[in-house]
């Protein structure tokens, strides 16, 4: 096999049905350093016209260390066969300037294995089982792009109820050059399996054609290709080529069908156990690092890194110092203040380093963490100060990435993402991918942490570290900074630039080793709230390092609870009674918006409930169903300064829910607050909304157990989010009126998300409050919801939302780190390299 061309076939389709007769080949081919090869096709040794779509394959370019190349080395080739009577052989020829080579030869026997007389093109991309809650994700379409009906079958062949979620699959549309992106060819099938031994299948139906696919064991060509992309590395690719050369294409293809080895779940989201490999794959290449060293910044400020050492292990000290020396940006100084109880650190430093950029000061005594850091600060001459721990490491591009941001001289405060390093074995783990600046989250935990670079002018303004908060001196500093900084002066770099070393004495490995730090953090937070004259109590949270803030209610404002209802009086009664009986906050009114009920018993119930509770009022909506209009109608009858939009299928769990939501909603900067909603089985139904997840927007932490805090305990902590569901949303009356209430163009879907977007556009915050807790009896298995009318309406509202809020969908949710995938329910899974580079290509380069 020649070394000129590198190539691979990912999938082969031989389609022969009423709509199409062709061969479709998906793969990639390049020569030199990622240059595109010209291709031609021979059928039965004769040239033939064919269609080719060139596509980006950043997964392959990345694996071959061509990260800076945007050549479209991938292809989808469609070879028409309508006029071919006997198909014997297909050859794919690659050309460069003066060389050609047959890179694939597909015999009749091999093609016969892929002979497909079905009309369906499909993939089962992901099968996820969360304690019996099954989510099957994939796509299916027919050449006409007409609707395909999906049924879920058990092993007896009987239909099973499930929730159907249509999904837009732009990746498939682009890959196969389908005529329209408006068709929701993707799907999620969600159902509950009570018997772990039960086997399930999906049944695709189009006109007279049917196809049954076992979903637990199935691996489509599409999903297999994805799993190989995820598992691939240069060594594996070389092994694959060796196997192909040695064993031939037929046996190679059989080996491909088995899937890559040593993957925990080749069809599902990446596990955080795979993070070490992920980090090494995504890290800048040596070529990129060399180009950074040569780059000339227009503004090249000196960065002073301050470090307080105390009896530091010499090997840790060396690694820390070397990680600074190896920076691709060179205008730095390292300022070390040593408060050690012996001379070991000083002797090691003096005997091993002679770099004028490193300043070392031996302190006469240990001044504590804050005191030692302040001593290091006194050595600084830089315009910007970076905080660095004595046993941690920087990535080589850490300072370069910060200086890139500091070209905007308005920025005074830059933080980035971090992970942990297992010291003994050199493995990276536990990446901390952070949101953009989130004040509410900061008041529950010091999520800023490392790596932090601030202007020296900011320190002059707010002061240095304070010894009374030793152990949490950095948290106190960040809280004080948040009190004076404007939003445009804070910048988050969503890249891992800092490795927090885990060893026996470190907080990273053993948080209990510094319990005093969490107590100091609580004091720092209390003092921060006191300086801002915010009346609140702070308590330790469910996990070390997180805090719960409970804001006191100012006055006794009226809360108007608006509940739309059509029949379902059992649900409505449960919602009403739970609040009437449990709520610790008592100044509320309930406005039930009757919406075209047909059961006589419903109207009898209305009379009973109004007689029973003087604060309950029923009003009557006479027009067609329009969720937005119905709630707006109910609002006209309300008297409260705060409005709670509430579904009739909810039940209050936590008696302090209204009080907690009202405490947040009374803050000047807050526009709306959403509650934590649980399914009846005590798994999460809503913990905030992530924009772009699954296409438009989806709920965070769906199906997570209520006792699980999720990614870095964010299901336990209050935080700013882009949106919350109106199944339980509190909003200031003034803000509701200011933004024009709910948009009646969104009759069923996205009306609450649209409302939140309008609130945020007015610079108010949206808060997820985990201490406001309700059940939401929205069924996990509601049956098929894919009638043509519903799909048409749903498509229309998708298009309307995408047009109205295209910027946030394009730029991403600021509270959801771009290193997280947008593909999987609940969010907070690692973004795979293929998804990452696809996004990078869409945005036109690296960011």
Automatic annotation (TrEMBL):
Pfam families: Glycos_transf_2 (PF00535). GO terms for molecular function: glycosyltransferase activity. CDD domains: GT2_RfbC_Mx_like, GT_2_like_c. InterPro entries: Glyco_trans_2-like, Nucleotide-diphossugar_trans. Residues 304-461, 560-739 form the Glycosyltransferase 2-like domain. This is Glycosyltransferase 2-like domain-containing protein. It comes from Dubosiella newyorkensis.
């Amino acid at each position: 096999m020649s070394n000129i061309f590198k190539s691979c076939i990912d999938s082969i389709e031989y389609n022969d049905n009423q709509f199409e007769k062709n061969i479709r080949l998906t793969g990639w081919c390049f020569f030199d350093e990622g240059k595109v090869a010209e291709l031609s096709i021979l059928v039965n040794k004769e040239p033939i016209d064919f269609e080719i779509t060139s596509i980006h394959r950043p997964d392959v370019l990345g694996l071959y260390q061509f990260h800076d190349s945007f050549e479209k080395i991938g292809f989808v080739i469609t070879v028409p066969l309508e006029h071919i009577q006997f198909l014997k052989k297909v050859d794919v020829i690659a050309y460069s300037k003066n060389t050609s080579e047959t890179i694939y030869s597909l015999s009749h026997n091999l093609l016969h294995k892929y002979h497909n007389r079905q009309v369906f093109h499909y993939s089962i991309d992901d099968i996820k089982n969360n304690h019996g809650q099954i989510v099957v994700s994939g796509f299916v379409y027919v050449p006409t792009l007409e609707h395909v009906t999906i049924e879920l079958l058990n092993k007896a062949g009987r239909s099973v109820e499930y929730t159907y979620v249509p999904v837009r699959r732009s990746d498939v549309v682009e890959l196969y050059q389908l005529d329209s992106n408006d068709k929701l060819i993707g799907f999620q099938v969600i159902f509950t399996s009570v018997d772990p031994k039960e086997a399930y299948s999906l049944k695709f139906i189009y006109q007279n054609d049917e196809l049954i696919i076992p979903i637990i064991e199935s691996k489509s060509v599409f999903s297999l290709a994805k799993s190989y992309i995820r598992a691939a590395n240069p060594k594996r690719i070389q092994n694959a080529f060796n196997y192909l050369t040695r064993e031939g294409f037929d046996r190679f293809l059989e080996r491909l069908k088995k899937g890559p080895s040593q993957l925990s779940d080749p069809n599902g989201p990446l596990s955080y156990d795979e993070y070490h490999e992920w980090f090494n794959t995504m890290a800048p290449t040596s070529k990129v690092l060399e180009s950074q060293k040569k780059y000339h910044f227009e503004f090249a400020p000196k960065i002073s890194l301050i470090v307080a050492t105390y009896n530091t292990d010499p090997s840790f000290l060396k690694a820390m110092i070397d990680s600074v020396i190896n920076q691709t940006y060179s205008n730095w100084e390292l300022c070390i203040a040593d408060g050690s109880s012996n001379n070991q650190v000083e002797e090691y430093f003096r005997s091993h380093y002679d770099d004028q950029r490193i300043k070392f000061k031996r302190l006469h005594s240990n001044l504590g963490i804050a005191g030692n850091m302040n001593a290091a600060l006194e050595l600084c001459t830089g315009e910007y100060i970076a905080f660095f721990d004595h046993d941690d490491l920087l990535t080589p591009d850490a300072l370069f990435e910060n200086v890139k941001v500091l070209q905007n001289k308005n920025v005074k405060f830059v933080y980035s993402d971090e992970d942990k390093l297992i010291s003994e074995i050199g493995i990276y783990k536990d990446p901390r991918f952070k949101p953009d600046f989130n004040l509410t989250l900061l008041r529950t935990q010091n999520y800023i942490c490392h790596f932090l670079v601030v202007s020296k002018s900011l320190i002059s303004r707010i002061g240095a570290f304070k010894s009374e908060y030793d152990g949490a001196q950095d948290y106190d500093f960040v809280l004080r900074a948040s009190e004076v900084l404007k939003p445009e002066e804070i910048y988050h770099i969503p890249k891992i630039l800092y490795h927090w070393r885990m060893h026996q004495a470190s907080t990273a490995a053993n948080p209990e080793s510094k319990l005093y730090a969490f107590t100091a953090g609580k004091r720092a937070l209390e003092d921060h709230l006191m300086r801002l004259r915010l009346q609140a109590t702070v308590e330790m949270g469910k996990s070390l390092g997180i805090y719960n803030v409970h804001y006191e209610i100012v006055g006794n404002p009226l809360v108007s609870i608006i509940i739309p209802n059509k029949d379902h009086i059992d649900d409505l009664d449960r919602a009403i009674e739970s609040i009437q009986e449990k709520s610790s906050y008592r100044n509320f009114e309930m406005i039930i918006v009757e919406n075209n009920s047909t059961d006589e018993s419903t109207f009898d119930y209305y009379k009973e409930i109004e007689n029973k509770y003087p604060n309950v009022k029923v009003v009557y909506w006479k027009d067609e169903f329009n969720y937005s209009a119905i709630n707006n109608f109910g609002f006209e009858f309300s008297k409260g300064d705060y409005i709670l939009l509430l579904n009739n299928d909810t039940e209050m769990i936590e008696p302090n829910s209204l009080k907690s939501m009202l405490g947040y909603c009374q803050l000047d900067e807050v526009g709306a607050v959403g509650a934590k909603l649980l399914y009846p089985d005590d798994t999460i139904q809503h913990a905030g909304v992530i924009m772009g997840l699954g296409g438009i927007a989806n709920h965070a932490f769906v199906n997570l157990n209520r006792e699980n805090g999720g990614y870095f305990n964010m299901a336990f902590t209050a935080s700013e989010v882009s949106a919350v569901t109106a199944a339980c949303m509190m909003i200031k009356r003034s803000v509701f009126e200011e933004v024009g209430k709910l948009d009646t163009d969104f009759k069923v879907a996205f009306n609450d998300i649209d409302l939140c977007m309008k609130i945020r556009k007015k610079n108010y915050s949206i808060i997820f409050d985990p201490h406001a807790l309700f059940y939401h009896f929205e069924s996990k298995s509601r049956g098929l919801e894919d009638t043509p009318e519903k799909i048409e309406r749903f498509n229309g509202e998708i298009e309307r939302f995408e047009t109205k809020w295209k910027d946030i969908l394009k730029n991403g949710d600021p509270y959801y780190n771009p290193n997280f995938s947008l593909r999987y329910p609940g969010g907070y899974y690692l973004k795979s390299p293929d998804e990452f580079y696809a996004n990078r290509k869409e945005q036109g380069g690296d960011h």
